[in-house]
Design a protein that fits this description.
This is Butyryl-CoA dehydrogenase. This protein is of the alpha+beta class. The protein contains ten helices and ten strands. The chain has three domains: about 110 residues, Orthogonal Bundle (Butyryl-Coa Dehydrogenase, subunit A, domain 1); about 110 residues, Butyryl-CoA Dehydrogenase, subunit A, domain 2; about 140 residues, Butyryl-CoA Dehydrogenase, subunit A, domain 3 (Up-down Bundle), CATH 1.20.140. About 50% of the residues lie in helices and about 15% in strands. Helix 6 runs parallel beside helix 8. The protein is globular and about 80 Å long.
Length: about 375
């Protein structure tokens, strides 16, 4: 085992680090304050190939792997989480279901555009009143003359209402099993399909430069071949997607946690109080040391989960651990960084103010911390 990244991974990490500091950092605060989606930044990310990192070259991808995506997410989130979550959702939630489960025709049609960043895909799972109980799907889809007719509402959907959103893959009840349980399938709905509309744009605590909307389906008709994967396997497919996505969210969380360390170190060397730079005081030193320890430990957790995934080994427990540990680290580090900055940490002019607002969702999105603990307990053999 080596603690060093390979030359290829390190080159990617450095290039995204430079992009985050040179392109994202100078302008993202304005986007965040105005609640504007950063189209020009997303276009540049597409030109760099970031949206195609884990996909084969035959689909316009970079021929990399999921760990490469995680490294990019960490570096972006060290500067801003809105940009990082746009990439994470576009890849792991938008494109990955089609790559993992889509037909040859679906892959040929959609993946090149998604890999280039020319278009974004979204993942329609969560419903109003559903939250963590994703299996309690109420959206329905019935077959009628060779078409699926979709009715229902999805909530908190990232990348679902931008000018470049091309599709949403939604879970819907397509029938009942012999035991009465719902048969849940995944159906691809292109943007602009009649009966598919983007509802309210949420006013959020954080991630203000990312796109999050409610989606409404009213007798929305799509061809029968828009079924993604096997009929009745939609829920199981998305559980697999969420296992992978938890590693990506862990990487994003580590980036935010490390960004808090970066900003605090810089500020501690500049800010003076009682005649000395505050970095001279043990209270500040210990706080920053704890922040670094959290970020380091969380990084090891997501590295381990990603390594197991790429090796084809079971990784569900490790992904849940990584997501739990890293989201906790992000939240704790954001709180401590705000304390280091004092009153300035409460101002949106400073990055740590954005970090603090962005951190909380990491303990909720793509599986709450409580869900992660439940998954870990089940993997340990405790009763379901």
């Amino acid at each position: 085992m080596s603690h060093r990244l390979s030359e290829e991974y390190e080159e990617l990490r450095r290039s995204v680090e430079a992009f985050a500091h040179e392109v994202v950092a100078p302008v993202i605060a304005g986007h965040y304050e105005r609640g504007e989606f950063p189209y020009e930044i997303v276009a540049r990310m597409g030109e760099m190939g970031l949206f195609g990192l884990p996909f084969p070259e035959e689909y316009g991808g970079m021929g990399g792997d999921y760990f490469a995506l995680c490294l990019a997410l960490e570096e972006l989130a060290r500067v801003d989480s809105s940009v990082a979550i746009t990439l994470e959702a576009g890849v792991s939630l938008g494109a990955m279901p089609i790559f993992r489960f889509g037909s040859a025709e679906q892959k040929k049609t959609w993946l090149p555009r998604l890999c280039s960043g020319e278009a974004l895909g979204a993942f329609g799972l969560t419903e109003p009143g559903g939250g963590s109980d994703a299996g309690a799907t109420r959206t329905t889809a019935r077959l009628e003359e060779g078409h699926w007719v979709v009715n229902g509402t999805k909530s908190f959907i990232t990348n679902s209402g931008t000018d470049i959103t091309a599709l949403v893959t939604v879970t819907a009840v397509t029938g009942r099993r012999p035991d009465g349980r719902p048969e849940i399938s995944a159906i691809l709905v292109p943007a602009g399909t009649p009966g598919f509309s983007v509802g309210q744009h949420y006013s959020k605590v954080g991630w203000n430069a990312s796109d999050t909307n409610e989606l409404v389906f009213e007798d929305c008709r799509v061809p029968e071949e828009n079924l993604v994967g096997e009929r009745g396997r939609g829920y199981a497919q998305f559980l697999r997607i969420l296992d992978e996505g938890r590693i990506a969210i862990a990487a994003l969380s580590v980036g935010l946690a490390q960004g808090c360390v970066d900003e605090s170190l810089r500020y501690a060397a500049e800010r003076e109080a009682f005649g000395r730079h505050i970095g001279h005081y043990q209270a500040i030193q210990f706080k920053i040391a704890d922040m670094e320890a959290r970020a380091h430990t969380a990084r090891l957790a997501y590295y381990d989960a990603a390594a197991r995934m790429l090796a084809g080994e079971p990784f569900k427990k490790q992904a849940a651990i990584a997501k739990l540990v890293a989201s906790n680290a992000a939240m704790d580090n954001a709180r401590d960084a705000t304390q280091v900055f004092g009153g300035y940490g409460f101002m949106n002019d400073y990055a740590v103010g954005r970090f603090y607002r962005d951190a909380k969702i990491l303990e909720i999105g793509e599986g709450t911390s409580e869900v992660q603990r439940m998954l870990i307990a089940r993997e340990l053999g405790l009763p379901a």
